UniProtKB/TrEMBL annotation:
Family note: Belongs to the TsuA/YedE (TC 9.B.102) family.
Entry keyword set: Cell inner membrane, Cell membrane, Membrane, Transmembrane, Transmembrane helix, Transport
PANTHER family: INNER MEMBRANE PROTEIN YEDE, SULPHUR TRANSPORT DOMAIN-CONTAINING PROTEIN
Chief localisation class: membrane
Protein name: Membrane protein YedE/YeeE
Biological classification of the source: Bacteria, Bacillati, Bacillota, Bacilli, Bacillales
Cell membrane recorded as keyword: yes
Localization terms from the record: Cell inner membrane
Bilayer topology annotation: Multi-pass membrane protein
Keyword Electron transport applies: no
Transmembrane region(s): 26-45, 51-72, 93-114, 126-152, 159-182, 202-222, 243-267, 317-336, 348-372, 378-399
Highest taxon of source: Bacteria
Amino acid sequence: MSSYVQPVSEQQSVVKQTLGLKRPQLNLVTVGLIASILLAIYLLFTQHFVQPILLIIGILLGYTLFHARFGFTSAFRRLASVGNGQAVRAHMLMLAVAVTFFAPILATGFTFFGGEATGNISPVGVSLIIGAFMFGIGMQLGGGCASGTLYAVGGGRSVMFITLLFFIIGSTIGAAHFNFWMKDMPAFEPFSLATSTGLGYGGAWVVSLIIFAVIALITVLIEKKKNPPKLADVPSERGWKRIFRGSWPLFAAAIVLAVLNAITLLVRETPWGVTYAFTLWGSKAAQFLGFDVESWGFWQGDTAALNASIFADTTSVLNFGVILGAFLASAAGGLFKFSKITKGNALASVIGGLMMGYGARLAFGCNIGAYFSGIASFSAHGYIWGIMALGGTFLALYLRPLFGLSVPKQNDSFC
């Protein structure tokens, strides 16, 4: 999820330098593999046997996200700024594949290890609307969404460490304010296309596919009207080597991400999410500093997580896997390198991280937990999240230049 888009002449030079044309950083690959193996062994002997499986899934998610540069932030920005809907159509394919897998899993409740599968279904109310809008602004200033922050950190993008830190802080503040937003602000009951309408999972699947097709068609019509620049072709390895080096097609990554999310549901009984772990990490730090975290509404009824190891938390393990997977992907492509931080993008990362963290807590999740997994679970709140985050993106287009962050123009080409 790049925070800027360069004109063609500059872009071609950067693409040659950064996308699949460098020698593998074998020392870093070795470090990443050793770290992954050691962590998996530690999880196997100290935690539930599911944890090392989730670590592997997280690594595969991070590897896929990095190789495809699969963006949520950039997809929304391209559509909002110049009308390029290629990445949004990849989202629709991802969601179509996801609901196809989620429907029978949720209908039967089947999981691999005997528990019952449950989707991410949350209320639609003031907190969702405000939180998702905040998140949309924040991800455009912070340079990445929740998953994008993790894989950018794994890839060595220095400013994203700032985004991650303040993402965690914002999530923690949101947890402290949880009761106000959940109890004092109006909201409708959670609404599922499958169970709240009488359609069942089969009918909800059909309706979902129609919605995705309509959204994809709308993006095509927008492109015909605006004639935006297309995503640039980037150099990559050929044949089986492309698995390890170079750029993956967005549509291939969309399918892989959907399958991995379904496997996550089958393994841990709930879909992929990211920001719960940020709240847990921040709340543990706040507890260490003397705050009465257990009295916060977010943690009432779930204090066991505060007193357990972060490695006992499935979302944390998935997050660690995403970072490791992105690190391995960047090193295999010879791309791992810490990037320059400027005052402008540092300040934008602080503000963006805070807004994403706080917004995610209000909106019952981020681009993964609310948008991807929410829609895949047939929850109405996932669609509202996407609409409001896109609205926040439109506003952020006017804010980005204040921090020295560029906005795509009609004569730019995307990489």
